[in-house]
Amino acid sequence: MKIRLIDPAYEHPYISHSEKVIKNIWFARLTLTTLAALTPPDIDVKITDENVEPIDFEEEVDLVGVTGMLMHAPRAYQIAKRFRGRGIPVVMGGPHASSLPLEAKEHVDAVVIGEAENVWKGLIEDFKNGCPKPFYKAETFCSMEGLPFPRLDLLRKDAYMTINCVQTTRGCPHQCDFCHVTHFFGKTYRCRPVDEVIEEVRRLEGDFLVFIDDNIAGNRRYAKELFTRLKPLKKKWASQASMTLTRDPELLKLAAESGCVTLFIGVESLSPENLKDVNKTFNHVHQFEEAMKAVHDHDIMIVAGLIFGLDHDDEGVFERTLRFCERNRIELPSFFLLTPLPGTPLFQRMESEGRLLHRDWAEYNGATVVFKPRLMTEETLQHGFNWACKEAYSWGSIFKRVFHPQQRFFTRTLSNVAYRRIAQRTPEGYLPSLSRILQRMNDTIHLQNTRDLIQHVGEKIAEGKLLIGQKAADTLKLYSVYNERLKTLFVTLEGSIDRKGAKELIERLKGALHVEIQKVILDFKDVGAYSSEAIALLSRKGLLQTEEGKRWIAVNTPRLHP
Ligand code: B12
Ligand code: SF4
C-alpha cells in the first residue's frame, strides 16, 4: 500500500513565504513526520510539504492524508477534490478537521478527530479492507511513553532553516480564550519521558533544534529535569513558553545553560483588562519590563507574540505596543490580529455576539480582520496592524531594538533582516490620527505642590479601598480609552491633583479636542486628593460639569473633606 501525506501550502499575496524566507526562518511541523512514524513499516509512506515542493496529482497512491490549520482548509479541500476525482480516497486530520469534522467530512472520505496515535493503524486497516469509517476519534489521549521518533528523513532537509524539531509535551496548563491548544488537548498537559526526549535530541544532526511545544515550561519540575539533562548535549534550542517561565529564576537559568537561545513568549497585550477578558491574568503587565530583562540577562532572544483587536484596544494600541517592544529591546516583535478559531471560547463569544464578518477560513490567517472590533472600525484595525508590522521592521525600529552592547548584534540583526523581508510585503497601513493624542492621554503627570491636598471622599475612600499613599500623592495618572464607534474618549484619573496636575490635564484635554472626538467623559472616581487651587481651576474651565449634552462630562466629581 502507498500513502502520500500532504501539508497544504498557503497561497496568499503577501502572507505566504518565499523559498528564501522558508530557508531562513521556517521549520516543518511535526505533524506528518509523526504520522509517517506511526505508519506500519510494510507501507510505503511519503510526505509532501506543498510550501516547499509541488504536489504530484498524477501519482499512483492508495490513500492520501491531508493536514491543516484553519487557514489551510480551503486548499486542503481543493487537494482532496483532485485526488478523489481520480478515485483515490482522502483522509483529513489536524487542528481544523478536529474542530469542524462535519465540514471536513463533506470534502474527504474520513476525518480523524484529535490525535492520530491510537487510531491511525486501524484506519489504514479499514481502508485496506475497503470499509473505512467516516470519523475516527480515539477514546483517550495517547500515552506519551514510547512514541516513535518522527520520520525527519522524509523531509527535504535543504528547504528549511532546520528540520530538527522535537516535541517534549502536549497541551498547556492554561486556558487562554483565543487558543486552540486547550480545545484540542482539553486540560491535559502531558510530558514525554525525559530519557526518550534526550535520546531523540542526541540522534539529531547539527547543533540547533526547535522544541515545538506550546509551552515548554508548563510543568516546572519536568522542565527543570529536562533542561538539566540537556546540558551535556551542548545543543542550542528555541521554543515557546508562557510568561510564567520568566518569573522562575532557577528555571530560566537552567533553560539558558541547557542551550536556549530564543523563546517565543505570549505577551499578548499591555492592557490588564484585555488579559482578563481572554483568561490570561497570569501575564502581569506591571512585571513585563522586569520579565523581558530577566530573559535578556540570560542572553535569550525574545520573539514576543502580541495581539491587536482585543476588546479594550483603541487606536492608541499600535504605537503603544511598538514603543513597548522598542523600550524593552524585543528582538522579534510578532504581531497578530485577533483571530477567532472555531472550537475556542473566543469563537463562541464572537459568534453569539454576531461579530464574525464571514467564514472564509483562508482569511483567518492572523493578519486579516475577520471580526468586528469593539472600540474601532475594521478598517482602522487593519491599517493600524499593517502600520505596526511595517514600522517594527523599519531600520529605525530594528536599530532601537537590537543595537545594544549586551546583545549579540550580528545574529539579532540577521533575524530582523529576515523578518523585515516578510514585513515589507505587508500592504501600506497608517497610524490612526488619534494615536499621538491617545499616548498623551495615557500618561503619568508628576505633581509639584502636594502639601495642601484635601482628601476626596470618593466612593473608594468611603469604602476604605483607596489609601492616599506617597505615590498617589505625587502623581496623577491618566488612563484613557477611545471608542471610535461612539466617538467618545473615556478618561479615568487616578492619584492626586494639584495646580500643576490640573493645568497639565487641561492642556492635554485641549490637545484632545480633535475633530473626531465628539465627547469626553472624565471619571474622577480614583482621585484620592485635590488642592483647592486645582478644584478652582478645573471648575473655571468647566471640567467638573456633570450635565449631559456638554462636550465634557465629569463623573464621580470631588466631594471634599474640610
Ligand atoms: C510549530 C507550530 C507552528 C510553526 C509552524 C511551522 C510550519 N511549518 O507550519 C509556526 C510557529 C511558524 C506556526 C505558525 C502558525 N501557527 Co502554529 N503551531 C505550531 C504548533 C505549536 C506545533 C505543531 C506541531 O508540530 N504539532 C505536533 C503534531 C504531532 O501535532 P498535530 O499537528 O496536532 O498532529 C497530530 C493530530 O492533529 C493528528 N493529525 C494532524 N494532521 C493529520 C492529518 C491526518 C491525515 C491524520 C490522520 C491525522 C492528523 O495527528 C497528529 C499526531 O497525533 C501547534 C500547536 C500544536 N500543539 O500542535 C500550533 C498551531 C497548529 N498553530 C496555530 C496557528 C493559529 C498558527 C498561525 C496561524 C498563527 C498566526 N496567527 O500566524 C501561524 C500560521 C503559519 C502558517 N503559515 O502555516 C494553531 C492552529 C489552530 C487552528 N485551528 O488552525 C495551533 C494549534 C496553535 C494554537 N495556539 O492554537 N505554528
Ligand atoms: S499559555 Fe499559550 S499555549 Fe497555553 S493556553 Fe495560553 S496561548 Fe495557549
Structural classification: alpha/beta
**What topology, given as strand order, has the largest sheet?**
2-1-3-4-5-6
pLDDT averaged residue by residue: 93
Bound molecules: cobalamin, iron/sulfur cluster
Annotation, overall tally of beta strands: 20
The number of helical elements comes to 22
- Name the overall outline: elongated
Which stretches are poorly predicted, pLDDT < 50 over at least 5 residues?
A: 464-471
Radius of gyration: 27 Å
Key structural traits:
elongated; binds iron/sulfur cluster; 562 residues; alpha/beta; six-stranded parallel sheet; binds cobalamin; 22 helices; 20 strands
Please give a structural write-up:
The chain has 562 residues and is α/β, with parallel strands linked by helices. It is 34% helix and 19% strand. It contains 22 helices and 20 strands. The strands form 4 sheets. Strands 2-1-3-4-5-6 form a 6-stranded parallel sheet, sandwiched between helices. A 6-stranded parallel sheet has the order 7-10-11-12-13-14. Helix 9 packs parallel to helix 10, helix 13 packs parallel to helix 15 and helix 21 packs parallel to helix 22. The protein is elongated. The termini are far apart. About 1% of the residues have low confidence. The site of iron/sulfur cluster has 11 residues, from helix 7.
